[in-house]
Design brief:
Chain lengths: 243, 212
């Protein structure tokens, strides 16, 4: 095992220990502060407005899937769906979800199915509310843009794996409220000019903590902050030649 | 029994598969790497089946639009016909050697050019977004963003003379120092988020695969 593998293993073990500690603490309902993130803070209000208008939100989960290099990004985007599914299904305005990978389609359908079951209305589950648009990122963006432009959606939420082609979707959503979260620089640089509430980089991974406030997400966020400090200290020590 | 099938078993399988694959990367020795490679192969096969389900999802959504005569149903009809033609041609190309040429033609002269045409629109839409940014959000941040984009754009263009050389040098410094620093900080944060996401799935804390 090389030095890099050993460091990676130590970081993983440290992350595991801290995650367990903070999860136990969060489950005891100790308050955990999560700083405001406008991209996610707007979403519950949008769900309510969509319910009043009787029109769904569009939730784009990007072209990533499960099993590839964008798995973590896709799961982070799925947290947004998990955060709004119960309320949206209860209001009978489940979001129109577009995905660019069928493996993510299956998970997204499962989230909506479980939400329908939890609120005691399994008949409200419609598998067609999750749409596999296309496997190619650009074609996916064009298809999602079509959904946003023509399917009478109330608002546009984008969270997941995107590249610069996300500008198609934001162009299609001009005039409506748009919220976006991306962890790739190319997507962020395309989203910045668009009129969106934007969560950048690691803020995407705070979606669960901000929307559902479940103990595991809150604990994960605290551990992320601590590990970032550890990495900064290691970098400084390396620069100073002490490591 | 229901709890076992819907919660315990999927979680156990996910945790076991995750731990074995992780060990395969951290300890690259034969038993672990063999298991890791096998798991990755299985994931590819499962993903292939998911694509079949995705195809049926596309048909379901667009046949529904066709049946309801919803807005844009004509495009749905074209999509369904094109999808079925692609499926038939590709299947024929796999089964019968003479049909391979038709399959190659379909991909080379129809699908790929259409994808390239769509990709070519990205630059135009981005330019349009930048123009809208100037109109609707005038701030120091916006100015800085646009100046940075201009420096990189002009520095990449092979302009003649001293101006071209200075711009190229400025672009190089911009990319190698402030942009690289920002990018690395960005990537460290994303890497940590990815790590924590993976740890939550491997420990069974996050269970997107089972009924919770």
């Amino acid at each position: 095992m090389g030095k890099a593998e050993i460091l990676a293993l130590l970081l993983i073990l440290l992350g595991l220990v801290l995650l367990a500690l903070f999860w136990a603490r969060a489950r005891r309902r100790r308050p955990v502060y999560v700083r405001p993130l406008s991209a996610f803070d707007q979403i519950p209000g949008e769900v309510g407005m969509a319910a009043e208008a009787g029109r769904p939100l569009h939730l784009g989960l990007g072209f990533g899937g499960i099993g590839g290099s964008r798995t973590a990004t896709s799961l982070a985007g799925l947290q947004v769906l998990e955060g709004i599914a119960d309320a949206a299904v209860a209001y009978s305005t489940p979001p129109v979800v577009t995905v660019g990978d069928p493996t993510l389609m299956l998970l997204a359908q499962d989230v909506l199915r479980r939400a329908s079951g939890r609120i005691g209305a399994p008949e409200r589950y419609d598998p067609a509310s999750v749409r596999f648009v296309a496997a190619d990122p650009v074609v996916y963006a064009l298809g999602a843009s079509d959904v946003v432009s023509h399917d009478r959606v109330m608002g546009n939420v984008l969270a997941g794996a995107y590249g610069e082609e996300v500008s198609f979707i934001t162009a299609g959503g001009m005039g409506m409220r748009q919220m976006a979260a991306a962890d790739q620089l190319r997507a962020v640089s395309a989203l910045y000019p668009a009129d969106t509430f934007l969560a950048v980089g690691e803020e995407l991974y705070a979606a669960g903590a901000r929307l559902s406030r479940l103990p595991r997400y809150l604990a994960s966020l605290k551990v992320q902050d601590l590990l970032r400090l550890v990495v900064i200290v290691l970098l400084l020590l390396k620069v100073l030649g002490l490591f | 029994m229901e709890r076992f099938g819907k919660r315990i078993l999927p979680t156990a399988v996910a945790v076991g598969a995750g731990v074995l694959t992780l060990l395969g990367y951290l300890l690259p020795v034969p038993p672990f790497t063999t298991v890791r490679d096998e798991m990755v192969q299985w994931a590819v096969i499962v993903a292939a089946f998911a694509f079949i389900l995705g195809f049926f999802n596309v048909l379901r959504v667009h046949l529904g639009r066709l049946a309801r005569r919803a807005s844009g149903w004509g495009y749905s009809l074209v999509l369904i016909l094109t999808a079925l033609i692609s499926l038939l041609i590709t299947a024929a190309g796999l089964v019968a050697e003479p049909a391979r040429a038709a399959s190659d033609w379909w991909f080379g002269y129809v699908l790929y050019p259409l994808q390239a045409a769509a990709a070519g629109l990205v630059a135009i839409v981005l330019a349009f977004s930048a123009f809208r940014l100037l109109r609707h959000r005038r701030s120091a941040e916006t100015l800085f963003f646009l100046v940075a984009a201009l420096v990189v754009l002009l520095g990449t263009t092979p302009l003649p003379g001293v101006i071209g050389e200075r711009l190229a040098a400025l672009r190089q410094w911009w990319m190698e120092v402030p942009a690289m620093a920002g990018m690395r900080g960005f990537l460290i944060g994303v890497g940590l988020g990815t790590l924590l996401m993976g740890l939550r799935v491997i420990t069974g804390m996050d269970r997107p695969h089972s009924d919770v």
